[in-house]
## 1
Amino acid sequence: MDPWSVGLAVLVVVGLVAIVVGALYDRRRNERRAQEMLSPPSRAIPHFRADAPAPQYLSELQARRAPSTNVADALSAEQRTEITTQLADDRTPTVAAGYASADFVTDPTSRWAVLEDPVVCICGDEVVSTRELLGLLERVILSRTPLVLVAPELARDVLSTLEVNRIQRRLSVVVVLVPDAAERERLARLCGARLTERSDRQAGYLPPVDLGRCERWVSTATSSHVVARRTATT
């Protein structure tokens, strides 16, 4: 056999081997890709350190018990007299809706919920999840600013979350449920606020101009009062 024929045969064999190897490689690569696409993503599962203390969980009863180390927000006799005079003043704006829960009471003697210089968030629709309020709550907690939340309705779990945070003194808040849209609009005008919508709350878009202010907010079991109102720019 002449050298040219031998070289051609070798070239054909090498070519066939290269084709087979390439086909097998592509097949395995495609199978691997398909498996990666169909398999769940790789996730690193966090674990406590071996020497980490065990987490502590509060029962419902414990969560609703005020910490013994915290001082109650009780008013002095002079403050109660001053507020009583303010509430009796015909010029003090009043709405026929009190606090949504007695857990928001700050003064056990008078059974009032009194917040000094709070921000006022007035919702145009029902608050259905705590997620809607996360941005606002983070803001007021970091700035230690009291919060008045006015809404036509709150989901039960949202109200419970705010109650517990109030009881544990993590948040100074009072919730007032005002189903009447006209009354909510009136409160918005009194406090210099704008009605907030669920889509904006969920997106975390609550610019300071949407929030109202007043120098003192007082809620009883049946009514709420905007004392010495003012328009805010916070």
## 2
Amino acid sequence: MITLKINQQPHTIDADPEMPLLWAIRDLVGLTGTKFGCGVAQCGACVVHLNGEAVRSCVTKVKRAVGQEITTIEGLSANNDHPLQRAWNEADVPQCGYCHSGQLMSAAVLLKEKPNPTDQEIDDAMAGNICRCGTYLRIRKAIHLAAEMQKKEGGVR
């Protein structure tokens, strides 16, 4: 048995330590907001935070996450009111929405590291996240909007 701390809650699971964290989160814990996209860390749909760092859960082994703080899209905010989530809605970012949990999780790390990113910094940070619908300009707009919201609300969440 392995215990993972996901979204500040302990979850004890019966998992192979070599299992990708993505499948532990989705299939064993039941948090399905994190998506499977490619399975080879190329699309970004599976991004979660491991101790505040954006990682590709499809290639991160469960054994690496033991004793660490894991945050999924479900844990980004209690009421879906993180500035990025609000900005995503205000900028009408989602089209199909499949990639957006990974997009949001990557953007959250960006804003933590660079509270007022330039277009180039956004593009660089988000380059590993693929959006099949091509909403990249709306994503960039939403990240700028979230940065402004955070500034007005007193900082990074």
## 3
Amino acid sequence: METEKSPRGSDEAASPAVLAPPTAPHRPPGPVWPAGTRPAERLCRVVGILLILSGLVHLVVFSVDGGPWFGPVSWRKPVTFGLSFGATLIAVSWVTSYLRMGARLRTVLLAVFAADCAVEVAGITLQAWRRVPSHLDMETPFDTAVSMTLAVGGGVLVVVLTLFAVASFRHRPVGPTGMALAVRSGFAILLVGLASGAAMIARGVVLTRTGHQEAAYHSTAPLKPLHGVSLHAVLVLPALAWLLSRTSWSEPARERTVAAATGCYVFAVLSAGAWAALTYRT
């Protein structure tokens, strides 16, 4: 009695093609956490969560200790900076996964960004516990060192985030429908926030160096709404595009929704800029 042969034949059954290991599964463009998370992204997530927790802890401290919420010396600063820097760090580490740039360069930039965010929040928190201003304080050598460290750290933030923004416009970001517009718009608006922050520090330093310390503290008020609104577009707009990709809406509808949200965000930024111009005092 004849034995049954393989439909492909005995020679083919032993071919290298059959013995070769299976190929890796196809990954969709634009990785979504937690799948495909890289060490740099995990670092940013851990640091970002710690910064957010720090902000929440100091909110509890404020509720217990009391004191003013506004002003150069208050618990508001470690609260708002911890929450804002933590959220921004997590957002940037996620959003940059949609950028078409070298993996090594992105890893280095994310590591520098994470370290810088930690230093900024640590310096602000330290000065809050010392009951002295964190920015524009040149009263003692130590306070000057902290203030200048925060200023240099702000410059590092500008450089790193500008490089990410340039990468988003050099090559179209990958991802679901509307993500390219969301990422590019988010980074463009973020640059407005960075510019307003740099303007606040520059004007404050000039006033401080010329002997107008109190005026330096109050000089930042007109630009604060513009600064705060602009910083988080890089989180809000890409998150909206990602959420829409989970719906059954058609691609044109999702694209129009992201475009409309971008327009609304730009209007908010322009309004904050107009308010800053109207309330600015020389």
## 4
Amino acid sequence: MSTTVSTEQSLRQQGEEQFRFLVEFIPQLVWFTDATGFHTYFNQRWTDFTGYTLADSVGPDMWNNLLHPDDQQRARQIWGHSLATGEFYEIEYRFKSKNGGYRWFLGQAQPQFNEDGSIKQWFGTCTDIHEQKETEFALRRREQELERAYADLEVKVTFRNLELEREVHALRQQLGK
């Protein structure tokens, strides 16, 4: 009997060590909450990025205070909806780093359910998408510049056509005399 318990404990310990290794290895900020959204865990990448320890970070709202002010209400609303419905959580938002700058992240979370179907806890990640968002914004700005240039060109062509039509009309009148 003790060999079985020892084997089970060894397997459990091995599984926990592998899990911790994976959580620290992946390039995301990893977080867990209880069923109500109270944060209970953040990985080392969270601490490295935000400068906040796990003890400083746990709670229901601390993470929202690190979001860009323009993203806080939307994030709170989407997270609240997921907590209420158990639906997959996904949002793009800007987190403040320990250096004071903001970076774009893709936040995602999936609930783990109890056997009775109630939410046991949430597992979440924040993936740095800052360069992707900066590229997206640069492309959008370039697209707007091109649209303005095209509109400007279109106006110039229209006015030039009108000028040419007047010139042709004037030449025809001269030739008709």
